[in-house]
Amino acid sequence: MILLCLSVLITSCSILRPDKYPVQWPQAQCLPSFPDQDGWYGADGAYSIRLDERRTLWVFGDTFVSEEQKRKDRIGMDVLLGTTMAVSTCSENAAFKIKYYLKKKNGKFVSSFGDNEFLWPQDPFIAQGVLYIPLLIIVGLPENPPPFNFKIGGHKIARIKDFQNDNPNFWPVDYQDWSPALAGGIEALATTSVVHDQYVYFYPLYRYAAGNVNISGNILARLPIRQLDSPAGHFEYLTKGNVWQKNLKPEEVKIIFSAGVSELSVRYHPENREWMAVCLSPENKGRQLLYSTAQNLEGPWSAPEPLIESIAEVDPESALYDQNTFCYAGKEHRQFAQGRNIVITYVCNSIEEIDKQESFIRKNTFLYRPSVVTIRR
After folding, report:
1. Do the beta carbons of residue 232 and residue 241 sit within 8 Å?
2. Using one digit for the tens of pLDDT, what is the confidence trace for 139-182?
3. Which of 146, 188, 150, 87 is CA-nearest to residue 361?
4. What is the pLDDT of residues 334-363, one digit of tens each?
5. Are 288 and 306 in contact (CB under 8 A)?
6. DSSP letters of 117-165?
7. Are 264 and 4 contacting, i.e. CB atoms less than 8 angstroms apart?
8. Which of 161, 200, 304, 344 is positioned for an S-S bond with 290, CB 3.0–4.6 A?
9. Across residues 32-50, what is the average pLDDT?
10. pTM of this prediction?
């Protein structure tokens, strides 16, 4: 399961006109929730994207699944490795409704993407009417002890030109392998995705180690929208001198998130004419949600500040606490905002062996599912 930590320390560069930023989609008082139904019993990831005026798509990582209804625990339950999807709507009286669309093959639950590959979802985006879902290619490392017995082996994009059908399993999908187009050292490209001003911006998780040079953190990359179908040679990376370069040079690249962020959100807040980055600090097992703001995607960003004092699941004083729990995957969902409220999800996991049937995560279903926080700024 996804165990990459989150945090944020951010810096740097130019000014872009606020009236060019996209208008957000408010849904007054319609707040997400994630009940057990349709065979879905918890997952992580929880990236979301507005598809149209009616629907929001949710993509999740590894998922607990079962044919049994109204389960009270996950003992003996299967874990589907890969990606699952759901679609949510808001009624006229602002009631949130979600339906999980689990995919089956030969009577067995399977990942929504990749027949013979293990693929984790990242932040989806829509450009020129086409839906793109970035996917991490995960390679198992059976010789390593769990839960860190995997590595990221590459990047694929699920390209969906027609997503009108209510059931996403019926969407026609074709795949692009972006791995050869990316610079070496990029472990996770679409930690968050932003479509803006003829580009798609990403904040890749980047690591480089050679000789006495050891670099780890998030950099800023962009790709022209017109090159999404042929990205090779067109990615650009921001340097310390605030210059965009096509050749990533470790000694020149600017680290934007110095702690190394694997999941976050960067979204525009028109009421304040600023961007907001939201993530979960990796300190104290992910106990604190942080945010920073900036006038443009390159920065300069404000110093990180807490959104809430602590997360209960990793607070020793809380009844939800377990010593093996850690939290991550903090991100904002702008389409559910009302006024100056911000709506955030995070996920808590466990370092216990997942196959241990009497583990805390299998006995307690509040763990390993998106938790929703609404915060008034």
Report:
1. no
2. 977 777 666 667 899 999 999 999 999 999 999 999 999 999 99
3. 146
4. 999 988 889 999 999 999 988 899 999 999
5. yes
6. SEEEE---EEETTEEEEEEEEEEE-TTSPTTS-EEEEEEEEEEES---S
7. no
8. 304
9. 98
10. 0.90
What CA–CA distance (Å, rounded) separates 215 from 357? 39
Q: Taking 70 as the threshold, does the pLDDT of residue 1 lie above it?
A: no
Paired with 350 in beta bridges are 325
- Round to whole Å and give the CA distance between 65 and 37: 10
- Residue 127's alpha-carbon distances to 198, 281, 289, in angstroms, are 9, 30, 29
Architecture of the domain made up of 18-376: 5 Propeller (2.115)
What local confidence, expressed as pLDDT, does residue 23 receive? 34
Decide if 294 contacts 308 (C-beta within 8 A).
no
| Domain regions of the chain by residue span | 18-376
Determine the 3-state secondary structure of 313 from DSSP. helix
Distance from C-alpha of 34 to C-alpha of 96, rounded to nearest angstrom: 10
pLDDT tens by residue, 201-223? 999 999 999 888 889 988 999 99
Report helix, strand or coil for 295.
coil
Contact 220, 165 (CB under 8 A): no
Tokens found for residue 122? 């990242």
